Amino acid sequence: QVQLVESGGGLVQAGGSLRLSCADSGRTFSRIAMGWFRQAPGKEREFVAAISWSGDSIYYADSVKGRFTISRDNAKNTVYLQMNSLKLEDTAVYYCAAKYKSGSYYYSYDYWGQGTQVTVSS
Predict the structure, then answer these.
(1) What is the largest CA-CA distance in the chain?
(2) Computed over its alpha carbons, how large is the radius of gyration of the chain?
(3) Which H, E and C letters describe the chain, residue by residue?
(4) Contact present, 92 and 37 (Cβ < 8 Å)
(5) Which residue of 32, 54, 64, 90 has the fewest CB atoms within a 10 Å radius of its CB?
(6) Closest listed residue to residue 16, CA positions, set 93, 69, 81, 86
(7) CA angle (66, 73, 103) in 5-degree steps
(8) C-alpha–C-alpha distance, residues 22 and 80, integer Å
């Protein structure tokens, strides 16, 4: 069983920064990657960023490239999403996820956290 718990969300003004954390408990054997996704009201959930379990590969959605940074601390079993230069359109519930299936890092994740709300105000 894998449990993922996100934290760090909140209210921030446009142009500000937040750092999300995802505390991870459970098996890491055969895990391929960790990812962050988000879902805005009335929209489908979308990919934000992913990092391979080895840390060698990192992927970002075009909409966040250059502003967001994904990272891992294996000793703390935690994945982070540093979000800078936040925009109104970044407002969403952010989820972290663990991937065990092979294939694209942009989808097919197996375990999900409960989400943390990020609200960007003008």
Answers:
(1) 43
(2) 13
(3) CEEEEEECCEEEECCCCEEEEEEEEECCCCCCEEEEEEECCCCCCEEEEEEECCCCCEEECCCCCCCEEEEEEHHHCEEEEEECCCCHHHCEEEEEEEECCCCCCCCCCCEECCCEEEEEEC
(4) no
(5) 54
(6) 86
(7) 65
(8) 6
Tokens representing 99 are 């991937």
Residue with tokens 């999900």: 112
CA distances in angstroms from 6 to 95, 102, 112, 117, 118, listed in the order given: 7, 24, 10, 10, 11
Q: Name residue, tokens 């069983």.
A: 1
Q: What is the pLDDT of residues 1-34, one digit of tens each?
A: 889 999 999 999 999 999 999 998 877 778 889 9
The per-residue pLDDT for range 68-108, each reduced to its tens digit, is 999 998 788 899 999 999 999 999 999 999 999 888 999 88
